[in-house]
Amino acid sequence: MTAARIDRRDFLRAGLAAGLAAAGSARPARAGAADLDFASAREAARAIRAGSVSSVELTRRMLDRIARLNPGLNAVVAQDPDRALAQARAADEALGRREWWGAFHGVPITVKDSFETAGLVTTAGAPELRQHVPVRDATVVRRLRRAGAVVLGKTNVPLYASDWQTYNAVYGQTGNPWDVALTPGGSTGGGAAALAAGLSFLDPGSDLGGSIRIPAHFCGLYGHKPSLDVVPLRGHIPPPPGVPATPPSTLPVAGPLARSAADLLAALEVMGGPDGDEALAFRWTLPPARGRRLADYRIGYVLDDARAPVSSDQAPRLAEAVEALRRAGAQLEEGWPRGLDLDAQYEAYLTLLFAHFTPPPPADRLPALRQLAASPERSYGVRYARAVTATGAQLGGAEGRRRAMRGIWQAYFRTHDAFLMPTALVPAFPHDHANDQLTRVLATPAGPRPYGDLAFWISFATLAGLPATTAPVGLTAGGLPVGLQIVGPYLEDATPIAVAGHLADLVGGFRPPPGYR
Q1: Where are the alpha helices (H) located in 22-147, listed in sequence order?
Q2: DSSP string spanning 471-483?
Q3: pLDDT tens digits for 396-405?
Q4: Exposure of 143 by Cβ count < 10 A (0-12 exposed, 13-18 middle, 19+ buried)?
């Protein structure tokens, strides 16, 4: 690991910042690992640096909580306790030498099972990868380790990280800590469940169809989909092990899930930046947020649309969050960016998603799919059929529409700083493994909706390559988390994260689910 020497004055100041015992004590007060179960990762790092808890104590505490609480959740599916404790001891010994490895020095984290981890089985939920033990870490895992993170184990995903629920034939189903009969979302569902239950302090995720944002929404967490190409995907599955990473400038990204907006920013600074050949010529610096106060922000918003109607149980929380921002001084404007064709952008997103990131259909299915593709309907199944039977010219047209949408958002963010919208049309819903994703149905207060409607609200930021942060803004009347999605200007990821931090001050941030304290 790359070690940084701590100046003696800084070292003492860090200890004092954690609080000395009152009457002239020369030692930092020891809060105890149990007091940090639901702390942010940065709070845990500060406690370790101040000496109020050791990395070994905190790691043992997380391993104990996993042993007690994980059987009811099935969030953490592969563990590495011996190596985790060895890493924690090394972190404590380094601190004794006044070395500080980075933002997450000694902090126990988990890793989504679609990221390769050296020496620890990585399946991506696929039975054919049950015995796959990588020899090297994915780029984001390597960078988090270099920043001092202690890897406890892997968190569950759907098969090849390709569903809005989390279950597979290798490890089974993951429950939502708010109600284990409900899904935690997908595909970073195991990581979201582990964070919400206090089993980990950070979990790197990936996002193509909302796989960071939807689990954050369902579990009451913060999740950030970075700007396209900011965080490398090298070592992520899919594609299969040994196949080069997804080429840049497509759709998928990697990013963090956490219990605070500040953790998102710290994790992004660690995870971001080019790697491989690109690192020879490019450097990346995260631009600061556009404003320090909410009064500095001009923010647009849309909280409902007939294409994916937002359920009545979460609509009040979204509206309250917008009103709280308005009262705090932000300039709020309702309405979509001028020129944004919602149908065209959604069609382009689904075409590129299905054409490039789903397996090609068997040849004997193509005639039926071509017939279905000719239907005038706009159902999820028809859009799938159009995408997988599309000609090169049709795919080129979808790519052209994507570039046009990026231009519309670029113009919008010359005069606005952020855009608010729901993360999904519903909160967490009951596990549903029936049929396939093209024919599943969501039950909503207004009636059944296609399962594929979960793609609508997350599609805007993904298609345009924009940063998007989901922030918790309260609970439904039935006690389920609601997350607001904050979209920001391209490459200015700190701006939506900053708005998420302001929202925490106004409407409250992460709250632990009942029964996990």
Answers
A1: 41-50, 55-69, 81-96, 139-146
A2: EEEEE-TTS-EEE
A3: 999 999 999 9
A4: buried
Tell me whether residue 66 is exposed, middle or buried, using C-beta atoms within 10 angstroms of its C-beta: 0 to 12, 13 to 18, 19 or more. Answer: buried
Closest CA to 88 of 106, 102, 63, 61: 106
Q: Quick check: bond before 177 cis, omega within 30? A: no
What's the pLDDT at 188? 99
Cβ(497)–Cβ(509) below 8 Å: no
Asked if residue 121 lies in contact with residue 132, where contact means CB atoms within 8 angstroms, the answer is yes
Helix axes 41-50, 261-271, angle to 10 degrees: 80
Q: What is the pTM of this model?
A: 0.93
**CA distance linking residue 217 with residue 488, whole number of Å:** 18
Three-state SS sequence of 200-218: CCCEEEEECCCCCHHHHHH
Contact between residue 225 and residue 468 where contact means Cβ atoms under 8 Å apart: yes
**Domains of the chain and CATH, by start:** 4-299+459-507 (3.90.1300.10)
CA-to-CA distance for 281 and 291, rounded, in angstroms? 30
pLDDT band at 31 (very low <50, low <70, confident <90, very high): low
Strand, helix or coil at 127? helix
Half-sphere exposure for 159 (CA within 13 Å, toward CB): 11
What is the average pLDDT score of the chain? 93
Tokens of 6: 């701590």
The 10s digit of each residue's pLDDT in 61-116 is 999 999 999 999 999 999 999 999 999 999 999 999 999 999 999 999 999 999 99
Instruction: Give me 96's structure tokens.
Output: 């004794």
Is residue 114 within 8 Å of 254, Cβ to Cβ?
no
User: Is the model's pLDDT at 29 over the cut of 60?
Assistant: no
pLDDT, residue 44, reads: 99
Token reading at 269: 């600074």
Distance from C-alpha of 320 to C-alpha of 492, rounded to nearest angstrom? 26
Answer for the pair 254, 129: CB distance below 8 angstroms, yes or no. Answer: no
- For the residues of 307-346, what is the DSSP string, one character each? TSPPPTTTHHHHHHHHHHHHHTT-EEEESPPTT--HHHHH
Instruction: Give the containing element (helix H, strand E) for 110.
Output: strand 108-112
What does the alpha-carbon distance between residue 242 and residue 122 come to, in Å, rounded to a whole number?
13
Cβ neighbours of 152 (radius 10 Å): 28
d(CA 457, CA 482): 14
